[in-house]
Amino acid sequence: MKVLGIETSCDETAAAVVERLPDGSGRILSDIILSQPDHADFGGVVPEIAARAHVEALDGLIQAAMAGANIGFGDLDAVAATAGPGLIGGVIVGLTTAKAVAVASGRPLVAVNHLEGHALTARYTDRLAFPYLLLLVSGGHTQFVAVEGVGRYRRLGTTIDDALGEAFDKAAKLLGLGYPGGPAVEAAAKSGDGDRFALPRPLRGRPEPNFSLSGLKTALRLAAEKIAPLSDQDVADLAASFQAAVTDTVADRSAKAMALFASQHPDLNDRALVIAGGVAANQAIRDTLTHEAANHGFRLVAPPQRLCADNAVMIAWAGAERLALGLTDPLDAPARPRWPLDELAAPVLGAGA
Ligand code: ATP
Ligand code: MG
Ligand code: FE
Fold first, then answer.
1. Sign of CA dihedral 219, 223, 229, 230
2. Does residue 180 share a domain with residue 284?
3. Looking at the structure, do residues 50 and 196 belong to the same domain, yes or no?
4. Rounded CA gap, 319 and 327, in Å?
5. Does a structural domain hold residue 332?
6. In CATH, what number is assigned to the domain containing residue 320?
7. Which of 85, 130, 262, 348 is buried deepest, with most CB atoms within 10 A?
8. By percentage, how much of the chain surpasses pLDDT 90?
9. What is the model's pLDDT at position 45?
10. d(C-alpha 11, C-alpha 148), whole Å
């Protein structure tokens, strides 16, 4: 089955066509992402600018995705779009466009939860079987989720303040490294000394796999203020020390999450920890988690970076997984600014296995 996917929940406008085969494998027929450049000047995404840019770009992007896949709308089996969570203006643009394409082509609509897109990507890249443990780390979310099936998610832990990506973005802003912050901090950290500043590892050792990142952000600010004005080397050392604190924290919190997940699935042989979301692009975090997972009898599954950040392949793929279970949505499916993963309607019992 072939599914067109549309993603407009933040500052990427994206369209892709994915084919899912009956054996559960898939292939990308086209994959187009347009990152909006205009937000850097503001140090963050401006919702109104983002929504307007989605309106201007989306029609052309969909045409390009269809042309790239070398198919017509009549060849589609469904049209999938992010229906939330995200910036509501952008979500409405993508979802409404998907509804129009669905009506015009007589194909069903799949209203996809953006987080489910991140959560199911590893099913496409690694043909992963349920259940698995997911660490979702993005600009808006930081959580451990037990992925039991399509539409069947249990949140094991979350952040009690900032998201991990948000912490990277704030650290970058503080260090004058620009936006988006994650890649900038990672690049600066490469030439820095991660041991120079002793920054906290919040919640270290606590049994519940939660995160808290606002204290770390404050500690970074105080360390920077103490030695201001900052040389390039100071900035690199602060970035490296911040990244080291984050990496240690992710490892410690993941250890607790893996122990919890393993205790809930005592008979599971192939235990996988999947990392997804924009922060999953961070190589230091990937390297640390590879070791940490192995130490706990898990293997780390990290999709390629292009599929970790926001993209439309993951939306098309999640749409295809839902369609394969007969889960389509009515044309009045709402756009939802907030939509926790564990509030998704689950398919009939057993269907997600
Ligand atoms: P959500 O998925 O929660 O709605 P979002 O879609 O904005 O939020 P993503 O696009 O998945 O989030 O991820 C963007 C975030 O990832 C940004 O905060 C960015 O700084 C962070 N990020 C990207 N690359 C890296 C990196 N190499 N290291 C650390 N963080 C990174
Ligand atoms: Mg984004
Ligand atoms: Fe995302």
1. negative
2. yes
3. no
4. 9
5. no
6. 3.30.420.40
7. 85
8. 91
9. 83
10. 30
Ligand 1 binding residues, C-beta < 6 A: 9-10, 86, 114, 138-141, 165-166, 168-169, 180-183, 186, 277-279, 281-282, 309-310
Its domain, for residue 46, covers: 2-120+306-325
Count: domains in the chain: 2
Domain-embedded: residue 345: no
pLDDT, tens digit, 9 for 90 and up, residues 133-186: 999 999 999 999 999 999 999 999 999 999 999 999 999 999 999 888 999 999
For the CA of 247, the nearest ligand: 1
Do residue 153 and residue 85 come from a single domain?
no
Edge-to-edge strand order for the sheet containing 299-301?
A: 152-158, 142-149, 132-137, 272-276, 299-301
Which protein residue has the closest C-alpha to ligand 1 atom 25?
Answer: 182
Distance (Å, rounded) from C-alpha 144 to C-alpha 231? 37
Whether residue 7 lies inside any domain: the answer is yes
The owner of tokens 């990308």 is 28
C-alpha distance from residue 132 to each of 26, 141, 192, 290, 299 (Å): 19, 18, 35, 15, 10
Would you state the structure tokens that stand for residue 213, as one six-digit string?
């990142």
Nearest CA to ligand 1 atom 4: 140
Same domain, 151 and 243: yes
Work out which ligand 1 atom sits closest to the CA atom of 281. Answer: 27
Specify whether 93 is located in the same domain as 158: no
Task: Say yes or no: 277 and 215 in one domain.
Answer: yes
CA of 85 to the centre of ligand 1 (A): 15
Instruction: Using the mean position of ligand 3's atoms as its centre, give its distance from the Cα of residue 195 in Å.
Output: 31
Residue 288 binned pLDDT confidence (cut-offs 50, 70, 90) = very high
Measured distance CA(247)–CA(328) in Å, rounded: 39
* Residues 112 and 186 both lie in one domain: no
